[in-house]
Sequence to fold (574 residues):
Amino acid sequence: MQLLKRNRPLQAVHYLLLSLAVFAVLFPPAVVVLNAFKGTEEYNVSGVFDLPNSFFNMDNFRTVMNIGHMGRAFYNTGIILALSLIGNILIGTTAAYALGRFDFKLKRAILAGYVLATLIPSVTTQVATFSIIKNLGLFNTHLAPVLLYLGTDVVQIYIFLQFIRGIPFDLDESAMMEGASLFRIFRSVIFPLLIPATATVTIIKTISIYNDMYIPYLYMPAQKLGVVSTSLMKFAGVNSAQWNLISAAVVIILIPTVIIYLFLQRYIFSGIVSGSVK
Amino acid sequence: MYSSLYKKQKTIILFAFLLLPVTLLILFSLYPGANLLYLSLTSWDGYSSDKGWVGFDNYREIFRNSEIFSVFGHNLYYFFGGILQNVVALYFAVILSRKLRGRNGFRVLIFLPYIMNSVAIAYMFSYVYDAQHGSLNALLTNLGLGDLITSWLGNKHMVNISLALISMWKYLGFNMVIYIGALQSIPEDLYEAARIDGANGWQSFRFITWPSLLKIIELSMLLTVTGALEVFDLPFIMTKGGPAGASETFVTKTVDTAFHYSNYGLASAMGVVLLAIVIIVITVQRKLILREEKGR
Fold:
């Protein structure tokens, strides 16, 4: 390690390749940002890499917000995200407590069920899920994606289960000595100790739900129920080849996540690491 | 002593805490899986109440009709892209785990695509790849590489490479961050000791870093294989499988077979085949890992 550090030509190669990677990462978003500020006439005569006349030209963004209904899209995404996160945390912590702390008859069967659920490619089972959602009367409601995010992606169970196994059982026992009920133990001992795992689940689920397109596309096609992904698809479909407008829509969707990411990157990195090494 | 006291409570807790999660699990994962299996043995068209039993005909069709199975050839691009992505991610992880000026900035930037909305990424790259107005062709022209200009999504020899590159662009940083996490869990003393024993950089990578990373590399490879088998979003949004089916993947073809051609029986059988392949891959992988652990 030390020897390599002093190896200057090699160091230069590392920096060169890193710069290349950064260029590749930033090239597509940079072009989108440059062109999001160009009016249609301006766009038609300028080159892709030309700076816009003004970075204060908000016309495209206004069009996107009004015609693309992006405000509503963020609201719908926000509701689904909040409900799914609360549900995931409740279901994940309670199920992990039951499965991680007690022995009972069906335990092995339930664990096997969760393993199986991770293997089934959910895109291909939509026919059955669709009829269930329809029969429950939940088609075209916010609850449809929420229930599907709770029932099909079960990674939260593994994260909590893994974590709860690391909490010493002595804690439960000493609480029992003091006569605490099991529910009390869960609420006052286990749940607070699961907070790091809860943070991991929140991060991983937020990324996957914000980015999901297929479930809202299938289960909430109603115009007023568009989430960010599906609203962008609709907007881009109507304004195809108007790249300045599409660019503005892309920028609007990317900005919130990029800002949150820059503030929380440390937590996001550790969340990703502990979430994948389950 | 406590067990008798808490026995009743335990029953109540188990029931209360597992009822909802298990109901959701059965309703939205296990039942649909079982239903997939059942439908794969019928010729259901998606709407009529009659689900004609056809036995294994759908499966015969999949293996006989070369058009269906050959689609996996398109998934191969994502698989090879995924391997390359893992190699590059590992390289970046190793150099960014050292004391390198600006390493945090590089980490943050390289990971950035992973948190971006996938539909936004799809349109962003549609713009990059656009034949007339695209920035990639403009960049090539500016660099004097005008000969390379092509319609990146319209050329049937190019389209899968173009799409696989987006997937690499998005997931490289994710792999890198996981590798960095694994690298940081290796105790620094090991390197220290190796250095005192006169090991050079390559040797400490070969005998300390690599063995500690093996498990996480295997996990990443597993994700790469299943990810490549289940590619869907990018071709679905960007090319609709075109031009002329050149960028169809097994999953987009399955979805098309069901929702477009109303052949739910065949589509379900394709879903089951995909599930079977995933299970085989995972089983083989587990066998390999177990064997290695025994060997140690």
